[in-house]
Queue: 3 jobs
Job 1
Amino acid sequence: MKLTVNGEKIEATAAPGQSLRSFLRDQEHFEVKKGCDSGDCGACSVLLDGVPLHSCIYPARRADGKAVTTVAGLGKDGDLSPLQQRFVDAAGFQCGFCTPGMVVTASTLDEKNLDALPRMLSGNLCRCTGYRAIEDAVRGTHRPVGEPRQPEPLTSAAAVGRACGRVGTSLPAPASTRIVSGQEPFTLDIAVPGLLHLAVLASPHAHARITRIDVSAAAALPGVHAVLTHADSPATLYSSARHENRLDDPDDTLVLDDVVRFRGQRVAAVVADTVAIAEQAVGLITVDYDELPAVFDPRAALAPGAALVHGDKDATTSRLADPSRNLVAQMRGEHGDLAAGLALASTVVTGTWQTQRVSHVQIETHATIGWIEDGRLVLRTATQVPFLVHKEICRIFALEPADVRVFAARVGGGFGGKQEILTEDIVTLAVLTTGRPVQYEFTRVDELTISPVRHPFEVSVTLGATDDGRLTALGIEVLSDTGAYGNHGPGVMYHGCSESMALYSVPNKRVDARCVYTNNPPSGAFRGYGLGQVIFGIESALDELARKLDLNPFDLRRLNSIGPTDALVVTEPEGDDLIIGSYGLDQCLDLAEAALARGNGAEVPAGPQWRVGEGMASAMIATMPPNGHFSGASIRLEPDGTYTLGIGTVEFGNGTTTVHAQISATALNTTPDRVKIRQSDTDVAEYDTGAYGSAGVTVAGKAVLAAAGALAAKLRLAAAERTGLLAASWMPEPTGLRSGSAFVPLTELAGPDGLEATGAENGALRSLAFNVHAFRVAVNTLTGEVRILQSIQAADAGVVMNPEQCRGQIEGGVAQAIGTSLYEEIVLDGAGTVTTRVLRNYHVPQLADVPVTEIYFANTRDILGPYGAKSMSESTYNPVAPALANAVRDAIGVRPFELPMSRDRIWRLLQA
Amino acid sequence: MDLHTVEWIASARSRSDLGALGPDVAPLAGGSELFASPRPELTGLVDLLSLQWPPLVIRSDGLEIAATCTLAELSRLPAVPGWTAQPLFFECCGALFGSFKIWNVATVGGNICTSLPAGPMIALACALDAEVLIWRSDGTDEVMPASGFVTGNMTNVLQTGDVLRSLHLPVRALRARTAYRKIALSPLGRSGAVLVGRLDADGFLLTVTGATLRPELLRYPAVPSAGQLQRDLARLDSWFTDAHGAADWRRAVSAVLGEEIRTELEEETPTS
């Protein structure tokens, strides 16, 4: 067929059942993304003869004779359309994976249908931004965040420097212009000659032993290169979860196992010339199973006689609390005496709260391409942790570290979901078996059915307080369902019970937490890492206590929260590694309370069925993960006078690359465009634990600052050596160093070999960040609809490195949390099968669902973070659900104990 | 998504070309449903768009909508004088979960033949007493009320090889007054209930879709009392639970929306 794409004539053949999306990608139009392949997310949107379509559900052959326009046809880097430029100016993206489809769709809107923007963009999902910035970009209504104060410069001479691009300014992401024109390559946006594709046979059983696999028919199919079964799998147990310390997670997983423990688990894999052949061959594999007893309820899993999910594992070598009771991990402890504390209380509140399974829905699905290059294994993969993947792949396959390279291009969203090995292991096996390049790409159904979900928690809270509101007792019991594998199970449980408890200064505390196996699909890391689940319980219980005591809920927090010098206690005092490096909780409470009192003029819907309520909640989070988080940065002055920064951490919409450019520019008194950044590649950067636990600024950023500072010192020394003038008298400028009237160009200092310095951070000390959220809502008592009238978040981010980005992180976290609070739920049938298998049955917030949140920053400066900054990505999510639940309670007089607070659940609460 | 097992697409030029349809050969209209999920049973597709059925034909006795008419075409039909029910076209398109970009390809017939409870073209057809024309695979034509077409959640009266050709909306219904309500678990989510009321010389009709496994139609000679309507709604037995709402909630909100519709049409009844 013949068609034009962005004006260029193309003649090619489309398969009869091929979608326009995959056809365009076959033509290397990688700006056309796959998010869902079912017409729900809009990442693949293109224009066909000017008409916008979801190309994933459009038969390719119908494009014959037509003109296709992709985002790259609307404008390219250096020649952006006004709309694309507005997306840059408004920071209308974070990871940027949805952006091509968003821009294409927005390009068709005129003044008339801007009024109907929520409907016009209902088919374009963004998981990062929370849509405010996108709406500003589309409408042209963007306004910069209220200019914050400037942080003190590293050197006094930096005062000479330019404001733009320094820390504290809203520098756009370095990739901005490429993102908005679809030119920034993500994981699969590369043409690999001879690429094979991998498809997986999924288990139909929740628990079964494979007694026989016959792959002969599959292997005989023309175009099939390998069929992999448990017989081909390395025998090394590992965890799909990745942490700095690999002992954090139980070793309970094999690349391919002869026992399957959840529906959808890999049974076998086929490597073939095309996805079509691989899928056909998968259908030809015959398997005999011995079905085993299965358990789906976490409480039942702990009962005597329950089916054992990993009864075959050794507790010590796999690091499990008690595999004979399905107990993965347990945390029990008491500070003071809870019973005594309750005896002192005049008011006691108890309750049990339940959170649901949530899917990350990064718009880019998990995917890996692997190949052999110069005798080494290379993995290009969608990961937050390339160095940890590198370490574990070497371990599983007994490969020398020098023989493996792992790298990430720009990653299309993470939220914790890409802190796992989900595709890299099987691709490695396939590449090592065939010697050929192999690609494995998750479908959206895979994401919703087998990719780990947020751990569902049952949280029971007991609070005791005296009449004046002083807490005398705080106890929690936690039951976490980690599913069929223990990845992140222990960590999520421990973390969930830590800062949530430590936030309150209570003489008597108790924690009794258990994390258990079931034959449900695995749970994993999700933004907030357990804290959000426990905070939902504790902050709801505190709200109930405030009601019983007739206290203002803000005052109750003021009375009982830790102060800047208080000890941090969960059930034992926290280690010396955790300090309150800055304290802004008091300001956050004041800011949120004042904004709520001020109101926003939003009108309450008319009718007696609408009830209005207000609610708030606090959250505290450590600024990085515990037990060490390492990052090494190198920065090099190139012979041409520009800088190259090498840093291991990953960019997936977190904006760390922007901040690293700002830090480098500030420390070297240059402009960010003179700093080239190479990142997330085990071949080009020093070791970095990875982009999780909100470590991109507080750990990697600190390493960058150390490296840049060291290079600045080297430059001064070099200038001093050349001139005899004192090193301290030399100040860096964008093109050279100046000392009085003397000037040495950078090109001269660099010499033919350049000049390099390194810096490192080990995460030995951690600080704390605070967030307070408040809502005013109206609830329709007839339908259960919750309408958010006002949404407020006050954040203690320390010194705000990039106000636009930080606002975006908060807005995105709030939007994701609104999804968790009101809409999202991975539903199981009670027998281990996910019933919400496509996005139209799993409701990710659309533009219509997310209000604009008022955001306020506390004025603090952290003593640990670079330039006084703190982390601000996970923390923004955590206080939202309880704040919203408390507002709903205020409105309707009945407390929600279960997420999501869907309309049918709210309605049912009102029927009791 | 790619339908890997599909080996051929044939462009239908005449009704006889539909003879190729079978258990492994599906009719292709807009493709928005067909290409949205794996269809490993299919080896071939017969393209209906090449039949070039005129999408919308205005006649003195009403409107003929080809099964291949897109939602975009339907929603953009210029207002026909006297057709007071016509705003319902756009309203029902708006009840589709798919975006306006889906409207550009999704067809009226495809939506009806998918026969989801939330299919908004089913609500439209039932509320306006449409008759559907089915081309049976044996070459015969069958005309039946749209209200009998959908038999359950994703089931209908079509047999393998049958094709939905068109809908006919009678002019009497198009001249009626209508009231429309939709609710979902989110502002623009997939419908948990879509209710349409119609009042004309024939009486009052309340169509309940989205909340029930199949369309439920309540007919009255005139606007019923609130109590009567509530009693009749309570007697319906096909409320169902899925990711878009629990059965008890669907029943309750249908009662709320039904009463809103009843009140709206009663209040606006001209005092002639």
Note: Chain B has three domains: 8-50, 53-172, 177-268.
Job 2
Amino acid sequence: MTAPLLDVRDLHVEFRTREGVARAVNGVDLRLHPGETLAVLGESGCGKSVTAQAIMGILDTPPAHVTGGQVLYQGVDLLRLPENERRKVRANRIAMIFQDALSALNPVYTVGFQLAELFRVHRGTSRGDAKRRAVELLDMVHIPDAKRRVKDYPHQFSGGMRQRVMIAMALALDPEVLIADEPTTALDVTVQAQIMRLLAELQRERNMGLMLITHDMGVVADVADRIAVMYAGKVVEEAPVYDIYARPAHAYTKALLESIPRLDHKGRALNVIRGLPPALTDVPRGCAFHPRCAYAREICRQETPPAYQIAPQRIASCHFVREVLGV
Amino acid sequence: MSDVVLETRGLVKHFGAVRAVDGVDLQLRRGETLGVVGESGCGKSTLAKLLVGLEKPTGGEIRVRGDDLSRLRGGGLRRARRNIQMVMQDPYTSLNSRMTVGDIIGEPYDIHRDAVPHTGRQRAVQELLDLVGLNPDHLNRYPHQFSGGQRQRIGIARALALRPEIIVCDEPVSALDVSIQAQVINLLEGLQRQLGLSYIFIAHDLSVVRHISDRVAVMYLGKIVETGNHMAIYDQPTHPYTQALLSAVPVPDPRLRGRRDHIMLTGDVPSPASPPSGCRFRTRCWKAQPGCAEHEPTLEIRERSPHPSACHYAEVRDVMRRF
């Protein structure tokens, strides 16, 4: 396999709050290759969005502090770059889109102005050229009548169209990495399908690395090449997409897959994961999943499971990997 | 039919020019779950509010056990209302943060004073807490001391307080995490079996609706476009909108990638303030003919649709099949 575009090693992020220190990201390792779609899957509070924000360098500090690890982009640790250097990477090399396009766009400027601004600021493009590029970008994301729509404000677009505008903005400067944080969660399912198709098409054309942050196991199955499952600030399982759905290796992944209702058959009672995800100020000792786990035994309460390499490209941090896999 | 507990006929709700609900006929039978699906703006939440009396209909009838609600007054109306309760979507904003859980669940007894004698109130609330899987001793706690899933259980307990036969659930699990969703869905199913409840289950998540529903109604721009039992809707949809909707839902099985029928709809849902003439779906429909702009299709059984479908060209297309 080619060298990764993005290589996150042992990332730690904590939030220092009055209620205590919340360890939101607790030693995360991730790699993203050119042209690859990596899904980072998890429930609220698992640290998936914080990981993305740490990679982008857009965490609010304080309360958030990156307390350890590296984010290597082309061999350079982004975490050690001065802010002005980092800013260049952020705009040109690594871009991000968010769940809520309405709050990510500036309501008082036209979308054309906001798109053109990118070229004027980062590329020194003339006003007229920048305007033309803005129209091209709206065309690229298939917004009908782009010439006229560049003059519209964000609120004049529908939810799906707004998400297209945000994608246009993120891809304006041809980044190599796109981080998409729940990009379709707020959208209706028919619009979600349109946006996921657009992202896939643009990714193919540009051989871009796509990191998709999501909770939706259906979307992941449709688009991802590899999956990293997160729980309580850690990647607990990482695997190619086919393997993880066919044979999950971590007890959490397995329980999660059994707990979702399916469109393709009616099924019986859903398997329930008892209890709640832990508060990040008070993560259980040993394996963080043990209080909710059907496989848990004494060792799970005492020792943090190491990351077992169970196959090439497959990692699972569970003391009972073999049992979960059924081997 | 005697086992119909809830029925609407030509139910209409307009907000000024916006035709949120525009002629809905539905029937709910005892002990069954009717799923109502549709995308944002289709009118499904307005429908829920109409059913529980949070909105007044612009036209049409709502009959609870045969009684037309608009003709009932005073005690008769209160008794009918008692029979149909609601579980809301957002467990964070639907519970008053300044009230204890005991007061929240017991509040219906303030209005319906004959439901439970005042001295038996605490016991009734504790039984309800127990029924929904919460600790009966927690009745003096406040909503913020509970997680999202637990709060939704509180909302369910409140809905059950007056022993209704019918519960309208408006997106009851969509604000919850996946692992918590299953807990609440199983609870709702268990309560239905135990208490013989009938559910109207409104949701945008077609997988959840398939799981829980006996029958399904698909809404588009204020109207029901197709209805039938869950197998008819999911395995043999005949309305193009239902087919497109189903084909767009991602299925958690990567082996189906590229092997499913994908119908990509163009454009967005038109504004309910100026719905298209004739068939409301025609502007996004690949089957539309000139006649669709003139004649509005009625929801009925058709030559090629064994269950009611509001499309002139209704025809079974198995969008779930694998290639």
Note: The interface with chain A takes residues 39-40, 147, 149, 177-183, 185-186, 189, 204-208, 210-212, 230, 234, 244-257, 262, 264-265, 268-269, 320 of chain B (CB under 8 Å).
Job 3
Amino acid sequence: MSDVGETNSHTGFDTIDHQPAYIYTPSGTNDDALERPTKRRKVARGRPSVLQPHDSINSLVFEPLLGEIETLECVQQRQDLFEKCWSETDARIQSILNEANEDTLAEVTAFVDSPGDINQDDDERVPASFIVTGPNIASQDLLFKQLSARLKKEINGPIVTLRSGDASNMKAVLKQLIRDATNQRSEDEELSQERNGRKLLNYDLDILQSYVKKHGSQRVVVAFQDSEAFDTNLVVDLVILFSSWMDRIPFTLLFGIATSVELFQERLSRAASRCLYGFRFDVEQTSSILERIFQSAVANSKASLRLGSEIVASLMERQHDHVQSVQSFIVALKYAYMCHFYGNALSILTDPSTSSQLLLKLMKPCHFEAIRMLPSFRKLIELRVESQELDRARELIQDDAILVQEIEGALESKDGNILRLLRAFHVFASALSEPPSGIDLYMTIFEGALSNSDYLKRALDSIKRMTPNDLVVFIQRIKGAIENGSHELDLDGWADEDEGLIRELRDVEMKAVGLSENSADIEKSIRSSDAIHSKGLRTTVIAQRVQLSYEKSTITEAEKEFINLIDHVSKLLEQYFALENPKDLFLNELWLCDSADSFLDVFAPRPRAAIENALSAPYEYLTCEIGGSEEGLSSTHPPTAIIYQSYLEAGSLINMADLWTTFHEILSSKEGDEGDEREALMQFYRALADLKLVGMVKQSKKKADHLAKVAWKGL
Amino acid sequence: MASMFSLPSEVMLTSLISQFPCREQQIRCLATLLAIRGAPSRNIVLYGLEATGKSAIAKALLQKLSTEPDNSLVNGDSDVPLDQLRYAVIKSAECITGRHLLEQTVGAVAKAVNWEGNVGRCENVAQLVVELGRMLEGWRTSDKEASNYRIVLVFDGIDHQREAPPTLLPGLARLGEIPLDPTSCTSLVSHTSTSPPTPSPNSSKFSHLLHQPPNSPSGAKETQETWSRFTSAVYDSLSKHSGRDILSFRSISLRLWPRFIKPILDGQLSATPFSRLLVANRSLFQNETVLIPGIISEPPLAKPGALVQAGNESKGKFQGIATQLPYYSRLLLVASYLASFNPPRLDTVHFMKSASSKRRKKGGGTALSRSSTTKRRTISRKLLGPQAFVLERMLAIFHCLKDDADSRGRHGNGNDRKRERQNGSADIQMAIATLASLRLLVKMGAQNAGDAMDGACRYRVAVGWEVVRGVARSVGVEAEDYLAD
């Protein structure tokens, strides 16, 4: 640097010295492509000719797949299918969401309508309802939208929802309040903002008062959607203000509270809490809503797309670890639908409304080729080979016509297979008195692991502990589940399809009833099968010695019969719950969506890690020519990456002069001899500005000419 | 000719005095100062503690004075000039800005003097003077019968005016000097004071409180009796030692009353031996939670035990959060607590992986440094309360805790891929932002300065040790292991 500095000083005046600003022109600017480093990612080649018939394609959003040889008809089909499937699922979800808050809405509306008996005429306290929503802030939006819609219908008066984002100070809040309240009756002419010839300020509640008087409003509802996020002083001021207006404007407040009412009260000042009174309303917990949505949208028999266990597990883990939010679950579900129909060319085969013959007509050789690539096809072939059906296997691979037959068969048995799984799911969930959570059970079943799972083992164990009366109740529950089906899952009863099982169960039930009646008659109760088998331990003390002896319990005839019954039932159940793994079925890829990796990338992006990675290893993102391919400090890296590298090596305070020296040395080593120092300096500035923009450095107050390191790598 | 000086009528004053017991001196004083033929003064400052009746008395007195039939007319003395007293009350609590106050003042005066013309904008005290001058002039010309005019402006709680310009108070105080009208007068009512007016004895309060509560058990006389004895019991047990202002006393009495008379309504006890009733309800008077104004109104006839339980519930108020928060938010909360209460220099002792054997050692430092700290007698960090920490430091602590919790808790078999995924994830940043917006973490400095996720942003934890310990245990971390001292 000193060399350069000297030469500069010796050359005397430079023309640039007297320019008001230095214009930095990066070298090699002639070519636009060079200025911006080319990305390594493959960018799509020229758009093929599919999009030519313009008018019919207008609505087509999906891209042709299978190396772009998929016919437009199929693309259209996929898109239509997606829209249909999702709108059905969405409608089901929305109906659940609407009724989920129904109780809360009704309670709050009733409260707003007649805020309790405590209110006296001279009371200046503001009626308030505290709606405890739980820490999921995202769900408050929906709730308050529903609330305001409901209140608008039932209450005569304006409803205003305030959010912390647009409430910076008192004036702004009041302005918004008055504007929103007075604009709610659009048919009216502009409310006069004057009183007695005096023009009112736009934050004067007098305006609201005259509005209330004019329309005879019964209530003015002010809702604080995320009341914790409001500035506490602001809430206090507003509450006191509202309370002093109570004799003229009938305010009612709604607070959305994420933590707890006690915490909220703790933040309020005494004066403000004296001005409030009201009730607490609890909203249904997210987890229970989630379970219901899961049952109706994922496990429902009418859902056209099944989620695999892996994907459900990753979704549920995210719910548990990061966000407890119904909205994010719905979004993820929609994304699964989108991915499936957008990225899977074979998804056209899942259309339930069209017959398989019609569907198969759409199929082109490329589709068959794609099917032959599926893992499930491979499994099918392996199965054939194992069972020595080599000819069939060869035909499947070579002959499209044979494959079509197989596909047809698989499609027809598909619904039956799914139904069987769901019925087992329903029976299992309703048979036990303490069923496992529906989501866990679903995951186990769709892994095909129910027959070996703890759930089944525990259920069978519990049968062994049952007395005849318990057994009767248990069997009745199973029978009820089979006969009545399930409303949430949209399963109709299927007693006539499972006649064998029903008959067996009825037999067992009759016998058990008989046994328990008999035992009641002879006043000797029948022990559970477990109790019968366990040996009684008898202790006797003889001559100050303890003797332990096992006592074989005697088994009565009735008990023997009962043990047989129990064994029979557990065998039946074991048989019933021996389910096929859906992933072993041929063509399961068509209706089972199970790849969790893409989900995490989409829903849990890692912006910080991405930036850090890009800066420390630019060669992963840029072409080698510019980025270089070696690790560590390299002059071929972009300047920001070079600075970032030395930034990582520095301590918490970075000397600017040192940083500049390092940077300059690295740059000049590239060009062999010392290049234009001014240009290097410009690059240095630019790189530092980049780092500052990303939020990694800031000016240090401790030392002059130093930068403070703000971000460490890998956090 | 009637005398220049005459006090307001005694009838009116006595009725006021009976309405406001223990305020006789103040009422007479104020009446003299306000009455037109009294000893008018330009500025009157009413000061005193909260809820001592300043505003109420001023309003009631002015109400009477302005409607008082002129007693000179009673004498049939026709040439006696007619007195005209008007007043306007401006509540400062309802005025958002200083300008709003001035606008309200103009509006109130216009209403008081029945001004029908146009009222201009009023942005500062100077404009206020002009506007007031116009109005008072108009009043005098329209109302020619009277010869003595007087307007009283009551600024209620002017000392708590929001966004008041510095010239507001002096400006208003000198309003009376301006020769608009020789008899205009400003009266200021303010709340803060150093020496309150004579505190009223408790008996007076009862007399004020003798409005009947809504549900009375038996005959009116009996109720009256029970109520007065009940209020004295409440005063002796609760109100005397807490705030002595009448409003809180009244609200406590009204809150306790339904529960107090519940045995009578149920027919278990009768009202006549009051002592028995008192003994049966003694838990009501022993519990102090009723003194804290609750924003949740309890059901009107709660079980007697309900109030006792309320105290225990407050302990569990954070527990709900601990179970509702997602896993990583809980970890972040614990990390924030540690960052807030551990001094940064000890972080290496607690969190460095290379020195894991030292991790359990509390306090850190060498023997030499310890001896020096005892000499200096530093205050324990816990007593100093939560300190601000830099977000980046908390994140570093969070990652240490996460490794620990994951290995001990659910990911015992070590799923490395999953663990890697949390670094720099948007979900973690969202969790921090959520905690901040729930005010479990409090951002230091200006609210809008800098991004919430900026690494240099400073935060402070807003939950206590008990909560954090519970939260930490729910994720399988023992917070004590990491805490200095």
Note: The longest strand of chain B covers residues 146-156.
